[in-house]
Structures are given as structure tokens and as C-alpha cells.
Amino acid sequence: FIEIQDLIKIYESKETFIRVPALRGIELQVKKGEFISIIGPSGSGKTTLLLILAGMTEPSAGYVRVDDIQIDKLDDTQRAYYRRNHVGTLWQLPTRNLIWELPIIENVELPMRLLGVTREERKKRAKELLKEVGLEHRIEHKPPQLSGGEVQRAGLATALAHQPKLLLADEPTGELDSHTAEELLIYFRDLNKSYGITAIMVTHDYFVASKTNKIVQIVDGRISGYNPAREL
Amino acid sequence: FIEIQDLIKIYESKETFIRVPALRGIELQVKKGEFISIIGPSGSGKTTLLLILAGMTEPSAGYVRVDDIQIDKLDDTQRAYYRRNHVGTLWQLPTRNLIWELPIIENVELPMRLLGVTREERKKRAKELLKEVGLEHRIEHKPPQLSGGEVQRAGLATALAHQPKLLLADEPTGELDSHTAEELLIYFRDLNKSYGITAIMVTHDYFVASKTNKIVQIVDGRISGYNPAREL
Ligand SMILES: Nc1ncnc2c1ncn2[C@@H]1O[C@H](COP(=O)(O)OP(=O)(O)OP(=O)(O)O)[C@@H](O)[C@H]1O
Ligand SMILES: Nc1ncnc2c1ncn2[C@@H]1O[C@H](COP(=O)(O)OP(=O)(O)OP(=O)(O)O)[C@@H](O)[C@H]1O
Ligand SMILES: [Mg+2]
Ligand SMILES: [Mg+2]
């Protein structure tokens, strides 16, 4: 389902003298329906890898295929289409996952609205999704009126609203207590099984990573190992 | 140093029918120079408690004293002064800790500039603080050009720039891998010992909480126990 070869990403800026080789030759394969985690130190390139898979940033070099689309060859318009239709994302920075001025129920409805889902159907589905993540008593709250963990859960419901084939989640349990994190992971696994969604989760938490099918380790912009949990 | 009695905070909004009793009678004492953690489920009131101690929001009722100031009795101007001079804060939402358009070295300098520190002295101190949190090779980066963990570390350096008497940190290790989290906590403890800063850290991580002098447990807006780590 996903194939990555020799992926390189260098952040460069002419105005400042910044030049950061964030990804230095990533190789990765993910089968359809797999639920994998990527683990690694701060600054090792995890978010950058997700940004590329989400079509949010272009590779500097390398081959990246998601399903039947070679995303390193897309132009801006094609990449925007890919982003909106194929991928559900939950970012590390909470303000990127929700529109801060809208109640969360409208946030969850928005991806469905863009796809032309009827008003009744999206209201029903939005309530279901928010109930699944434990937020049925907060559906009219706007993000500033929620706790950190509630914002993250609302973001997850929004990422799944348009039933994407690929879910990319950057630290989805970062703001959650262990009890809520566990519930969320059970929900992820159920979705993964019942809808066959392929999911890549970035996490710092080995306990969380151990709930997935496969663990990939990244260090300094390169893949340094598979299933490190067994070796730890 | 800190004394809280019967603290109540109810979020209310007349336009929507939201009424959330976030804190339902908090009692807490913290001695000068103590380094305590507050642990509890998502939505239990941790951030709300910190917002009140930071002078960012007013109590609905109750007594709150920090050092020799009774903060529940302050007017808006006095509260703004208290915020700027007495407290260093690191919030759960990264965009609140830094000015997103400025390089991080200027972010760290800003609190010192507001206090009239000379240009040479604040440049020197800002570099030292950023070095302490492992960011000496990123000082010219702006927050969008940093990883999640790097943003958090830059936020911590900024919180300490004006040498506050009280440090409030909401999930300071949330975005960090266990290695970087451990280093950060060692740094917190050193500061706590050498400067006598009183520090309150909110965390979901029992491992992290166990590095502090005292653990306070909060559930549904009330304190439900002390030092739960020993009972676990
Ligand atoms: N826009 C950018 N411009 C320049 N450098 C960048 C930019 N974005 C990220 N970097 C740098 O690239 C490296 C990798 O960043 P990335 O966000 O992928 O790390 P990460 O593995 O997600 O880290 P964390 O666990 O802290 O979130 C970091 O050292 C960071 O400073
Ligand atoms: N501005 C607001 N208006 C209405 N309700 C609010 C507001 N801010 C927070 N709440 C509610 O108050 C409760 C406590 O929120 P708080 O942010 O203090 O929780 P928390 O313990 O920090 O949770 P987390 O661990 O998820 O960050 C939550 O249920 C939340 O929905
Ligand atoms: Mg990241
Ligand atoms: Mg919080």
C-alpha cells in the first residue's frame, strides 16, 4: 500500500543560513490495512515523514507511492486533491487539526460537507464519531473551551470523518492520560479491523507502540530498525 | 508559598447553554522551593488550576494566595502585573508559549527585554538557556521550523528567562521522547535546587511525576489524594 525508497528531505532557507537534512534516505513498506508505529528521538524526522505522506510538503528526492499514486511526482493541484481525499491526519500541533472558532460538531462535519454528504447524514455521523471518542457532552464546545485531551480526541474524530484510506497520526495519545489513551487505541484497532484503514502512528510511548502490528524506529532521518520492542 | 482553599471555577456562557464546574473546591498547600506534580484524567481540571495560579483566569469563588499576594482579590491591572513578574508558564498548547513569527533566541530574550535587561546580558543568558535545553544549533529557527519537542524546549527556556519565583508547566514532557524528557527533568530539579524556584508540573506520566517531591492527584475538579505513586 505504501512504498518509500531513498526519501530525502532537506529544509533550506536562502534568507537565513538554515540547512537541515531532516530525512536522509528513508526506506519503508506498509501493507494495506497495517497499523504501524514510528518511534524515535525528538528531531529525528517523524513529523517530516508524515508531512510527506500527507502531501503537505514535497520530497527533495526519492520515490514515494501511496496506493496507486506516486506522490513525489504530483503537482500542487494534484497534491491538494490527494490530501483532501485520501488521507486523514492528526497533527502534533492541536491548532492544525480543528478550526478554533467552530464548535467541534461542525468541525467533524466539515470534511463530509466538502464531499457532498447530506446534512442529516453528516450530523448523525458526527455525533457518532464524537461519542466514540467520549465527547458527546461537549459537541457544542469550541476548541478553546476544551481540555488538551478533549481537543486531541475531537481532532481524531475529524480526521476520520471522510473515511480516508490512510490515517496519519502524530502523537495521538500525547495529551491523554493512560486510561483515555488505552481506550483510544482500542478504538483505533477496531477501526483498523472493521474498515481496513491503513494507519501510521508516530509516538514516543513504547507502551502505545506495542499495541500496533509493527514498530519502525527512526534516528537522525534514517530508519534504524524494525520491532525494537522485542529487542528492548 | 501557595495556599488554596475552597477554590471553585465554573465555566459559563450565556449564548450557548454551557455550564461546566471545572474546579469544585480545591484545597492545596505548596511550600517555597517545592517541586510538585499534579496528575489526573483528561478533563479533571489540571489546566484550569494552573490558569488560576498564573493569573490568566479568575476564580468563581475561594481563596488563592501565592507568596504574599492574594490573587483572588486582584483587579485586571494587578493580575496582569502579577502574571508578568511572578510567574513563568509553559502551556499545553505550544502556540501560547512562543511568538510564532520570531526566532527562538528573540523569544527567550523578550521577557528580559520587558524588564530592562541590557542587550548583551540578555543575548548571553538566552544562549545559555537554549544550550541548557539542547537547542544551541537551532537558535535562529522560528517555531514553525522546529520539531514538536524542540518547540516545547524553547518554550521552557522562555518561561525561565525572567527568573520567576513560580514555574507552572502543563505537560512539559508531553512532546518529548523518554531520553529528552529525563534530561529535562534533571534540568528542572537542578534549577529547583540552585534557584529555589517553586514549581508545579502537570503531567499524565507517572514516571515523570515520580521525579518530583510530591504528587497530588486531581479527579473531577477535586483533589483526591497525595503521593499516589506509593499506593500504586
Ligand atoms: N521548516 C523547517 N525548517 C528547518 N528545519 C526544520 C523545519 N521543520 C523541521 N526542521 C528540523 O528538522 C528536524 C526534524 O524535524 P521533525 O519535526 O520531523 O522531528 P520529529 O521527529 O517529529 O521530532 P519531535 O519528536 O520533537 O516532534 C528537526 O531537527 C527540526 O529542527
Ligand atoms: N473555556 C471553557 N469553557 C467551557 N468549558 C471548559 C473551558 N475550558 C475547559 N472547559 C472544561 O472544563 C473541564 C476541565 O478542563 P481542563 O482543561 O482544566 O482539564 P485538564 O485536566 O487540563 O485535561 P487534559 O488532561 O485533557 O488537558 C473540561 O471538561 C473542559 O471541557
Ligand atoms: Mg514531531
Ligand atoms: Mg490540560
What does the average pLDDT of chain A come to?
91
Q: How many β-strand stretches of chain A? A: 10
Q: From the alpha-carbon coordinates, what is the Rg of chain A to the nearest angstrom?
A: 18 Å
Q: Unreliable runs of chain A, pLDDT <50, ≥5 residues?
A: 228-232
Beta-strand residue fraction of chain A: 25-35%
SS content category of chain A: alpha/beta
Helices and strands of chain A, in order, run as: EEEHEEHEHHHEHEHEEH
Greatest interface (CB-CB under 8 A), with counts per chain? A-B, 34 and 35 residues
Distance between the termini of chain A: 29 Å
The quaternary state of the protein chains shown equals homodimer
Main β-sheet of chain A, in a few words?
A: 6 strands, mixed
Global geometry of chain A = globular
Helix content of chain A: 25-40%
Strands side by side in the biggest sheet of chain A:
6-7-8-3-9-10
* Distinct ligands: adenosine-5'-triphosphate, magnesium ion
Task: Output the number of helix runs of chain A.
Answer: 8
